[in-house]
Amino acid sequence: MRIIVVGAGAAGSLVVFHLARLVAADDRAEPLEVVVVDPIDQVAGPAFGTTDPAHLLNVPASGMLVDPDERFDFVDWCRAEGFVGGDEAHYFFAPRAQWARYLRTRLAEARDRAGERLSVRFVRDGAVGVAVVGAGVRVTTADGTVLDGDRLVLATGLPGVGNGWAPCDLSDQPRYIANPWMPVALGPVLADDGDVLVIGTGLTMVDVAISLLKSGDDRRVEAISRGGRLPRRHADSYLGEVVPDTATEGDNLDEIRAAVATHVARIERLLGNWRPGVDGVRYRIAELWGRLDEADRRTFVRDLAGDWGVRRHRMPPSSGALVDEARRTGRLVVRSGRITGRRRCRWPHRRDR
Predict the structure, then answer these.
(1) Contacts with 269 (C-beta within 8 Å, 6 or more apart), sequence order
(2) Percent over 90 (pLDDT), the chain
(3) Domain 2-55+95-154: which CATH class?
(4) pTM: predicted TM-score of the whole model, two decimal places
(5) Which DSSP state fits 350?
(6) Which strands make up the sheet holding 2-6, listed edge to edge?
(7) pLDDT level of residue 46 (50, 70, 90 thresholds)
């Protein structure tokens, strides 16, 4: 059997990892060929391709397992690598590059255990077309290569933002960076200490701002988004999770939203912190989402996803401390608004302070 996996990042690599586990666990399993299609290196996508050690996971080590049978494997790995010791390892926010190295290590080990019954081939190109051919699938790459397989796994991660937000074409601007996670994309900006405007105020902005601010002592970063919302910080220590009983939380957005708000508020009253309530809801997300019709889902994405996201997808405590200090000193400014136009100016350009 041949399985084509589109995407070599964390999602695609985990697919190959678990296929290798299945082959290794069954001596009678038929030989399996896996073809991985991606123009970039393995586990080198937006989330884990960074090499900056200041870019941290936004989930503690205890939540970053790759094997469900080894609940604290990454915790143990961090200890063995000397990143952290003792019980602190469970709530350690590791550099993302180290988790990528950990995943590559575990993937290589799983492939070795599978032996010759598993072959993995990498095609360094982008997939541009997919079609059903008979009982199988056909993938066409950007250079015209045709790959036929029995099964297809799309593991492309989240879609890119693109340039649709811009009121004008910025593609000819040498200092415009559409995707900061492309290899060495930030290099030209990091090479000087000029001020930088970042579009977006989420976790990507946090990482980009941390890199920019440490590369230039006099640099100023301004971040703008429609809501001007920053991700909240994780607590300084582990607080646990309180999973709600969702059996009676309703079947429409208004009822579910009210029930979740009641749950989080109750946990905050009991424990003095809202985070365990929000983190407990995470275990019910798929169930609650399945109850919504298409209209409610669109409403959530349009009107509520931003407020939920800043509470659910939080900054590591140390990143939050850096952001707070940069805002206190005026080196990082976060605003709400929209980009309505651009004008040329002489570079380098610095505003009066």
Answers:
(1) none
(2) 73
(3) alpha beta
(4) 0.87
(5) -
(6) 118-123, 32-37, 2-6, 151-154
(7) confident
Q: To which H or E segment does residue 2 belong? A: strand 2-6
> What digits encode the pLDDT tens for the residues 129-177?
999 999 999 999 999 999 999 999 999 987 777 777 777 777 777 788 8
d(CA 340, CA 179): 20
Give every CB contact of residue 106 below 8 A, 6+ residues apart in sequence.
17, 66, 67, 73
Amino acid letter, 234 = H
Residue 279 and residue 268: Cα distance in Å, rounded? 12
Per-residue pLDDT for 233 more than 50? yes
Give Cα separations from 307 to 33, 148, 174, 227, 279 (angstroms).
43, 43, 34, 9, 14
Of 233, 183, 186, 175, give the one whose Cα is nearest residue 212. Answer: 186
Measured distance CA(190)–CA(52) in Å, rounded: 12
Cβ atoms within 10 Å of 48's Cβ, excluding its own: 24
List, in order, residues 6 or more apart from 156 with CB less than 8 Å away. Answer: 6, 7, 11
Parse the chain into domains and list their residue ranges. 2-55+95-154, 253-312
- Local confidence band at 346 (pLDDT 50, 70, 90 cut-offs): low
| Number of other residues whose CB lies within 10 A of the CB of residue 133 | 10
Most confident of the ranges 38-47, 118-127, 208-217: 118-127
Q: Report yes or no: 342 and 168 within 8 Å, Cβ to Cβ.
A: yes
Q: Are 291 and 251 in contact (CB under 8 A)?
A: yes
